[in-house]
Every structure is written in structure tokens, then in C-alpha cells.
């Protein structure tokens, strides 16, 4: 069994079935990328960072899906993650700087990543 993924840039290509997870097949493709199913959606992760999906597709079937970039791969991070990272770097963002970068994604506050 194999699937073809298009619309995922460098992860486009043929994905071969490589086991099962959550009662759905797992597929491995170009650059050892992985396609798997969890939480009602298919996700695609790079081999070097399997915990951070970079594309997702909603639906029960993997064939013929439209792959969209995840929020984090589009440069968005959760508000608390942003504040923790700034604090860990020894900084304290001014509220006006934070508000300039803040956006709402899926009903939750996020911050645009700038570098």
C-alpha cells in the first residue's frame, strides 16, 4: 500500500505503508517524513522532528487530502510559549510589542514568530 502526497513542498512524494498507529496506517515518505493519524486528523512530520507536525489534513481517509501547514510551521507560537522564551533569554517584552505580534488562532492567543 502506498499514497501520493502533493502540496507539501519538500515532503511531496510517494509514502509507503509502515505499520499502524491509532488503528490507522502509518506511512513513510521522502526525507523519512511520516504521515500518521491522531485526534481526528492526519499529520505529517519530518523525521528529524516527529513531535512537531508541519502539515495536517482533516478527515478519516488519507487519500486525496489537502495538506495545510500547521500553525507552528507558519511561524505561530502560543502566547505562553512566547513569554517563556523571552523570559528565558533574559528579556521582558513591552506589552505594546507583544500586542503588535499577537494574533488569534482557533480561539487562542498566539504570537507571530519573527526569527
Can you walk through the features of this model?
Helix content is 15%, strand content 40%. The protein is built from 2 helices and 10 strands. The chain has helices spanning 79-88, 95-101; strands at residues 2-5, 13-21, 24-28, 34-38, 41-45, 55-58, 68-69, 76-78, 102-105, 108-112. The model has no long low-confidence stretch (mean pLDDT 76).
Keywords:
115 residues; mainly beta; three-stranded antiparallel beta sheet; 10 strands
Give me a quick take on this structure.
The chain has 2 helices and 10 strands; from the N terminus they run ββββββββααββ. By secondary structure, the chain is mainly β.
Overall shape: it is elongated
What is the tally of helical segments? 2
Total strand segments:
10
Low-confidence regions: none
Instruction: Please tell me the overall pLDDT.
Output: 76
Radius of gyration, taken over Cα atoms and rounded to an integer in Å: 17 Å
**What is the strand content?**
35-45%
Structural class: mainly beta
Sequence-ordered SSE layout with sheet pairings:
Layout: E1 2-5, E2 13-21, E3 24-28, E4 34-38, E5 41-45, E6 55-58, E7 68-69, E8 76-78, H1 79-88, H2 95-101, E9 102-105, E10 108-112
Antiparallel strand pairs: 1-2, 2-3, 3-4, 4-5, 5-6, 6-7, 8-10, 9-10
